[in-house]
């Protein structure tokens, strides 16, 4: 399921209390020139998208790419956050450093369950840090780390988390990295199986 669709479905499930935020909702633009400075204000958001979709920079002058420093600050704000359930950081400039900070935030955050990191500069160190925490997080179900620089080392760590009985992870997207196609296919197959209802429920008409 594409990350954007997953976020939309989540907002629909939450209902009228859901607030889908973007950068203008969580950062101040005191100068009115799309500089978006100051501390993060994400406590009122149930979903936060910092990718602005696929809008080209020429069409969207407000398109800001976030780097490690800003996302590390955001990660600090996520420790113990009890509101935000989905975070999309697609097509930014994140490296392993900011992803390690996000992983640490997940150690004491059991509300955030979807994370979209596609299209960044994340390598094995970031993937391994995420895998370690996701492997025991009881709420985290969806990770998109496609279009990064993860090799078989990081891919295997994430796949192990996906297969773990102690992990809530159900969906893992890892395509277009530096890992082998077999790993990507195995993650896709496990993800599909996790979302497929048991045959006995279908036969009993309980769905």
Please mark out the parts with pLDDT under 50 across 5 or more consecutive residues, or reply none. Answer: 1-17
H and E string = HEHEHEHEHEHEHH
Looking at CATH, the homologous superfamily is Ribonuclease Inhibitor
Tell me, what is the CATH class?
A: Alpha Beta
Task: Describe what you observe in this structure.
Helix content is 40%, strand content 8%. The chain has helices at residues 3-14, 23-26, 68-78, 96-107, 124-134, 152-163, 181-194, 199-204; strands at 20-21, 47-49, 86-88, 114-116, 142-144, 171-173. The protein is α/β, with parallel strands linked by helices and 207 residues long. It has eight helices and six strands, in the order H-E-H-E-H-E-H-E-H-E-H-E-H-H. Helix 3 (68-78) packs parallel to helix 4 and helix 4 (96-107) runs parallel beside helix 5 (124-134). The chain has a single domain, classed as Leucine-rich repeat, LRR (right-handed beta-alpha superhelix), CATH 3.80.10. A six-stranded parallel beta sheet has the order 1-2-3-4-5-6, with helices on both faces. The longest helix is centred in the last third of the chain and has 14 residues, at 181-194. Mean pLDDT is 86; it is low at 1-17. The chain is globular and about 50 Å long. Strand 5, helix 6 and strand 6 (171-173) form a beta-alpha-beta unit.
């Amino acid at each position: 399921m594409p990350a954007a669709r997953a976020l939309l479905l989540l907002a629909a499930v939450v209902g009228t209390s859901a607030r889908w935020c973007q950068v203008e909702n969580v950062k101040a633009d005191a100068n009115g020139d799309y500089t978006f400075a100051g501390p993060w204000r994400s406590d009122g958001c149930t979903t936060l998208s910092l990718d602005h979709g696929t809008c080209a920079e020429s069409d969207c002058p407000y398109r800001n790419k976030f780097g490690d420093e800003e996302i590390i600050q955001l990660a600090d704000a996520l420790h113990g956050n009890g509101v935000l359930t989905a975070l999309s950081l697609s097509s930014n400039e994140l490296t392993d450093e900011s992803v390690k900070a996000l992983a640490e935030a997940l150690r004491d955050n059991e509300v955030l369950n979807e994370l979209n990191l596609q299209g960044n500069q994340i390598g094995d160190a970031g993937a391994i840090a995420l895998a370690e925490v996701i492997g025991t997080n009881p709420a985290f179900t969806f990770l998109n780390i496609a279009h990064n620089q993860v090799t078989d080392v990081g891919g295997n760590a994430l796949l192990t988390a996906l297969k773990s009985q102690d992990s809530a992870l159900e969906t893992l997207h890892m395509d277009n990295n530096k890992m082998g196609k077999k790993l990507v296919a195995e993650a896709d197959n496990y993800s599909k199986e996790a979302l497929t209802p048991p045959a006995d429920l279908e036969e009993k008409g309980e769905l």
